[in-house]
Amino acid sequence: MEKRDYDAIVVGAGPNGLAAAITLQNAGLEVLLIEGKETTGGGLRCGGLTLPGFVHDICSAVHPLAVESAFFKKFPLAEHGVEFIQPPIAAAHPLDDGRAAVLDTSVERTALSLGADGETYLQLMRSLLKIWPGIATDLLGPLRIPGHPVDMMRFGILGIPSVKKLISRFHTPEARGLVAGMGAHAMQPLSNLTTSAFALILSVLGHKNGWPLPKGGSGQIARAMTSRFISMGGKVETGLFVHSLKQLPSSRALLLDVTPRQLLKIAGYRPSEIYRWQLRRYRYGMGVFKVDWALDEAVPFTAAACRQAGTVHLGNTFEEIENSERMTWQGKIPPHPFVLLAQPSLFDDSRAPAGKHTAWAYCHTPPGSSPNMTELIEKQVERFAPGFRDRILARHSISPRELEAYNPNDVGGDINGGVQDIRQLFTRPALRFSPYRTSQKGIYLCSASTPPGGGVHGLCGYYAAQRALRDIFNRETG
Q1: What digits encode the pLDDT tens for the residues 224-256?
Q2: pTM metric for this prediction
Q3: Positive or negative, the Cα torsion across 184, 258, 445, 19?
Q4: Which of 10, 111, 305, 429 is deepest in the core (most CB within 10 A)?
């Protein structure tokens, strides 16, 4: 690496590191972005995991947060070639009897799929969509005085309780299953406080923007972000894993797209005792076990709605999903794990050879667990799509341990950078005036271990960079 001075250095080129680098470079600074792998992207990468001609998303695939992100609204991905595809149905939730609930951009069509609970759902979502423009920035950012406190209070009344509490509003298996599947994205027991917030936010985003897929794969988002950064004059160094601050050139600000565990391991970083104590107490959550398939034909779901959905939640009833997430949280392997499946090639023919398809699915697991979950995941798919196994041409599985080896930020396979419960939702990774500042002046965290947490939105990097601009460079940010 060339030993020269920079205004700022960003370590880690996942979506948050890239967002931080772009934000700093846009402010007129000279920025160096360093990535340990040979390509940028973090959780935004594609690869040929199975057979030639099949393009698989190695980590993330569906991006409801990207189109709502303040960062991507300021730096549009379309300007650098990203095209989002909207499946006809954002997400579907099949039941054992062949029926399915759907999350549609139309609240009315979603309500129709929920039977007798349709009117209850309709009233709930219409009220949330009405207040969403005033609370979105506060919900998807660091803790601060809300711009619309009354609307935030209204959301809090619904979002702070558990999914189990929210479910009490509904009585049909369709509505209870759909809401449970949304809440399970929290990767916590559905009895935990704030799990309702995950269900409500993901539902609102589905109605407002859909759950889009990037044409060509998620790696296109990383390519576009990297292209923008370089076009602004930024410099990228890949293939350099940072173990020590001594490896780095001098800079006035250093932003690290790492979790607390990696921060404590970086040689040369000297946190205060209380900050070290807080970082050591930081909690990581469930892991994930993921399977990618090359398919001879599309997944043959029994429910027609599932064959039009970009994402399918496989968990049947609220009770089954609740049991699965609770057992996993307790360190056990459930007999019927809740499975999240994406099928991008239905809507993007660049993902597979003509007439063929790709799909991926994952389930939650105890952190760092070693059991191979491929069989259990495929049984869940087969349950709602008889004949699925006959269409598998090849598969690729990755365990929580292998996921962490691939991306050290996924500690124990935790793709959210740490538990996002009421104790760590806004104070991650430590209780401080600014969650992005470390105890050492000029060094900041910008990973998913800071607000607003996991997801492809770039906001952790965006807000961390804004904090550095104010602290170090006396720049006011908008």
Answers
A1: 999 999 999 999 999 999 999 999 999 999 999
A2: 0.96
A3: negative
A4: 10
